[in-house]
Amino acid sequence: MLRFNARLTLIIVATVVVLAILGLYVYVKGHGFDARARPSGLESRVALRLRAMAIPREARERTNPLAQTEEDFRDGLAHFADHCAFCHSNDGSGTTEIGRGLYPKPPDMRLARTQNLSDGELLYIIEQGVPLTGMPGFGTSSADGERATWHLVQFIRRLPKLTEDELAQMAVLNPISAEAWRQRMAEEEFLRGGEPPARPAPSGHGHVH
Amino acid sequence: MKLFKMMLGASALALLVGSGAALAHPDHRILGTVSKVTAAEAVVKDRDGKEHTIRLVKTTRVTRNRKPIKAADIPTGARVVITVVSDEDLTAKTIEVGVVVDGKL
């Protein structure tokens, strides 16, 4: 009797596995993929829960050890504009070309979902990254690297109340190509009263009148 | 494991390709002098003498010497560098205001 039950269980499990694989095959073949889509609510909740579970308690309970001076904030602002804004945008909203195309999308870091994370959780995510998302791990395993990340943590706390002046400063610090840099310098000269910059060679990208 | 590594590689490649696309994203700018400003629009004459009517919206960021100012404070005759949404949609994303000069560009 026991042997019969074991065999029946095995058949049921094997059938479920085969059906699941078949179902997955049909789903994948029928839907393709699109990183521009948004994860479902269930998928987001499960992923966030798993991420929270995966951060070790000692990391989660760490607090920002910096004095958090205005100079520390400026360092964080410059670092964010240079390294993070490309995906997260200067205001932390995540509304960038890259951000729109990622799956999952970068969060709006001004909102509770990010702001309610502890200092230690923010540090851990920046240093370790988040597997299977667009978030790379930036940790260098050095004291200087960790200090720079704490600057970012301090800056992220200020995202919900960044001023227009601070956003304008960040716009200047965002990375650009050498050609765009030359164009910007020429435009600044124009604004000071100099000659209008030469028209860039047609490349199919951008347009200056 | 090999499949996992391939997926990671593909993700990294996609991110790199995506980055390139973003770097190459068109930036439409208009350089000229302001001939008229209202709360809703600014008229700008470019180096060819062509006039462009630029739409001003709540999110338009106006700066002078990298400091934010109000659109109403843009003086007539000021040189400006304006980033617009596209050649078809002349809604201003940013306006940088420079010196006021007389004469042609």
Task: Characterize this entry briefly.
The complex is a heterodimer of chains A (209) and B (105). With 209 residues, chain A is mainly α. Chain A is built from ten helices and one strand.
How is this structure best described in words?
The complex is a heterodimer of chains A (209) and B (105). With 209 residues, chain A is an all-alpha fold. Chain A has helices at 2-31, 41-54, 57-60, 70-88, 97-101, 112-115, 119-128, 143-158, 164-173, 178-191; one strand at residues 207-208. In chain A, helix 4 crosses helix 8 and helix 7 packs across helix 8 (143-158). The N and C termini of chain A lie far apart (86 Å). A seven-stranded mixed β-sheet of chain B has the order 3-2-1-6-7-4-5, with no helix packed on it. In chain B, a hairpin with a 7-residue loop joins strand 6 and strand 7 (92-100). Chain B is an alpha+beta fold and 105 residues long. Chain B has one helix and seven strands. In chain B, 23% of the residues are buried. The chains are: A mainly alpha (209), B alpha+beta (105). The interface between A and B is medium-sized, with 30 and 38 residues. Strand 1 of chain A pairs parallel with strand 1 of chain B.
What's the topology here?
The complex is a heterodimer of chains A (209) and B (105).
Chain A lengths: L1 H30 L9 H14 L2 H4 L9 H19 L8 H5 L10 H4 L3 H10 L14 H16 L5 H10 L4 H14 L15 E2 L1
Chain B lengths: L1 H22 L4 E10 L3 E5 L5 E5 L5 E4 L2 E2 L9 E7 L7 E9 L5
Parallel strand pairs in B: 4-7
Antiparallel strand pairs in B: 1-2, 1-6, 2-3, 4-5, 6-7
